[in-house]
Amino acid sequence: MTSQTIPVEPFDLVVFGATGDLCERKLLPALYQRQRAGQFSEPTRIIGSSRSELSDDQYRSFALDAIKAHVAKAEIDNRELDRFLTRVSYVSADATTGRGFKELKAAIGDSANVRAFYLAVAPSLFGSIVAQIDAHHIATPTSRVIVEKPIGRSLETAREVNDSIGRVFDEARIFRIDHYLGKETVQNLMALRFANALYEPLWNSAHVDHVQITVAESVGLEGRAGYYDKAGALRDMVQNHMLQLLCLVAMEVPASLDADAVRDEKLKVLRALRPINQLNSERVTVRGQYRAGASNGGAVKGYLEELGNGGSDTETFVAVKAEIGNWRWADVPFYLRTGKRMATRVSEIVIQFKPIPHSIFGDAAGRIFANQLVIRLQPDEGVKQWIMIKDPGPGGMRLRQIPLDMSFAESFHERNPDAYERLIMDVIRGNQTLFMRRDEVEAAWRWIDPIHAAWEERSQSVQPYTAGTWGPSASIALIERDGRTWHESF
Ligand code: BG6
Questions:
Q1: Of 139, 207, 325, 403, which residue has the fewest beta carbons closer than 10 angstroms?
Q2: Does the Cβ of 148 fall within 6 Å of ligand 1?
Q3: Would the pLDDT of 1 be above 60?
């Protein structure tokens, strides 16, 4: 089974931060893959920009190295790669002084292509870049701007970032990336819920006992100490990716897939989250920080040694019991946990259904497990619906739990495209469904800020956990207090 590639209109994509990590690891490989898939129309151009003084050829050679390093060998097609590189050019520019923006304008010329500016730079530069774009009249009325987290580190700072971009681009032209929304399986969550009649009638507090969302990583700091130590797991993962997943699970059925129809429903969920503050934070949140241990088959340092700063109180793990105050989800906890240096890399959503109300089977039949729907986002993407069946054979009525198992890799033998491939193409198509609207980002911060304030006020310190485990024991206690356990099918 192959999916169809529909070419997008010709576009000019200007990437600021063109020599940075995001562009190297994600954007250039994603753009090359779209070239290989035949999705570009002529005359599409990619213009890299950063402060470094590079010639077009030097930047092409950077792009070539990036693609070779981050695309599987079997997917390198030299002809397509050459074609791709002919689209690439480079302009050195500095947004703090305005140097190079005249040259950038000249490089773009008066092309009628869809125009998009990707700000793959620190958010502190967003404001000056869009101001220079404006001052040099580089944006057309339909130009788009793409930004990514961190969008602030609190509600107040998020507003400042949003205001600085909003001075030049209106909301319909701002594409805020949460790369989790571009993941194939995350979108599948919408297909599962809204393209099947089976689940929706059960998708509520009458039938669902609780929901678990786990995003576990085995990596540590990955050289991002400067950013990460100021952020911590709550800002880095929960404010954005985890809450977006929660929204997709919990939202009402939107009237359509139109961007605002979907985003309106997600916003309602964010607004219905019950506050966590100094009154309940110790009961419903756990902060952790990894100590030395083993990960990916080798010994690894603890967070503080990796950081080279023994005094940091930044959490590398967080578990939260979130509750949504509305009819659909009354008394259905959403347990969220995420961490670095955990036992394995896995992202999963578990919908735990309630037990059957009455059993007609005797004790000899064995335990009847409540149904469970496990949506595996990565790796080994797929869906498992755990059900009870009769154990085969003539030995009487014994029951057994088995999964109806759909592994996407086994069912579809296609490459799983990276989130950025879809998201960049959606920008060109002008489709904002998978991008966060300003009010969503701010509503998420409005829920997160009091958690940080409570941690500070109650001096809720980080609990140590050994690298390569499932986090501090307090995280297990958090869910076991409610008579439940973390799902571990790993
Ligand atoms: C990023 C976080 O947004 O998501 C990183 O800043 C994290 O800390 C990453 O490692 C996880 O993304 P993925 O796609 O590897 O699950």
A1: 325
A2: no
A3: no
